[in-house]
Amino acid sequence: MHLNPEETARYSRHLLLPEVGLEGQKKLKTASVLCIGLGGLGSSIAPYLAAAGVGHLGLIDGDQVELSNLQRQLLHSTKDIGRKKSESAYDALSAINPHVQLTLYDQVLTTKNAKEIAALYDIIIDGSDNFPTRYLANDLAFFLKKPLVYGSVFRFEGQCTFFDTAHGGPCYRCLFPEIPPPKTIPTCSEAGVLGVLPGIVGLFQATETLKYLLGIGDSLAARLLHVNALTMKFREFQLRKDPHCPLCGENPSITELIEESPRCMLAPSMSSEPTIPSITVESLAEKFQGPQAVQLIDVREPFEYEICRIPGSKLIPLGELSSRLHELNKEEEIYLQCRSGGRSADALLMLQQAGFSKLYNVEGGILAWAERIDPSVVKY
Q1: Are 39 and 73 in contact (CB under 8 A)?
Q2: In this structure, are 317 and 228 located in the same domain?
Q3: What is the per-residue pLDDT across 264-292, written as a single tens digit (0 to 9) for each?
Q4: How many domains does the chain have?
Q5: Is 233 helix (H, G, I), strand (E, B) or coil?
Q6: Cα separation of 126 and 137, whole Å?
Q7: How far apart are CA 143 and CA 75, in angstroms?
Q8: Annotated catalytic sites, by residue?
Q9: Domain-embedded: residue 19
Q10: pLDDT of 232-247, one tens digit each?
Q11: 338 lies in which domain range?
């Protein structure tokens, strides 16, 4: 393995570093990295690894580029809206460094494809934005005895660490043994995230990856680095292996890859639990065309209501609903709507418990309304 003259010039600033040098750059050229997720974190991770000369990058993401991505996902641009993220990323990374081999996986990581894909790579980077993938990436790294570079962001805060269970270190389940119950933790699409924050945390992840591949420096193994972008303060937490961990503990209960339930889904209905009647946005639009007044309650926050609304809706934020029941007509049908359907489902269950019966959850919320009924409604 050698560097050609163009590569020597391209990586000259690396070659000047005694800790990297020619031998280190050759290590990077022969290395392979799997990047899970090409969103906010991946948009920082993948370009820097490509620019650094990592020889083979695996890029896995089954999503398409959306307008709301562009505030933080700099791998993609306005012209890429509607394209597969894997294809958009391929074009961007090829332009950064044509010497890097790029393998695309336009799919979601699952228990069926995870081992086959990850077995080809030296290290796994988790740049996902959901709990099921996060737990799957952790378990996958454990079973394949590969290091995992973890990062996550929320609003103005982010964190990063390096999991190395093959050498006795803790895993993600040592911190959080089980996936959080549905809807207990909002996603970035629900709570928001400062656009630059995934870039900051993604750079931490890329740095940890390069140090591992080069065999230099002190990793974040058994240390969790936390950043608050509002205060620009960093904190470090020591991580310890949990002997009772269900995956890497002394008596593990997880002995193979398992498919965790998506965080954004409603909890499975049990026979003793109330049902959630629903209505499509098409049917709701027909209701508005009829002679009867429509009682449509928007349970989002006031700032969301200012961004966009369905004409004729009434704002009652979910947190105020229990104290404003007197504003609702129990004798008429009540339609409940939020951004995508999760909070309005919670509102429906709350009203059922309060004795209301003529209730319907608007499937897909105002996002579905904007996509299928009124394109002039702003999506956020």
Answers
A1: yes
A2: no
A3: 333 333 334 456 899 999 999 999 999 88
A4: 2
A5: strand
A6: 7
A7: 31
A8: 188, 338
A9: no
A10: 999 999 999 999 999 9
A11: 278-372
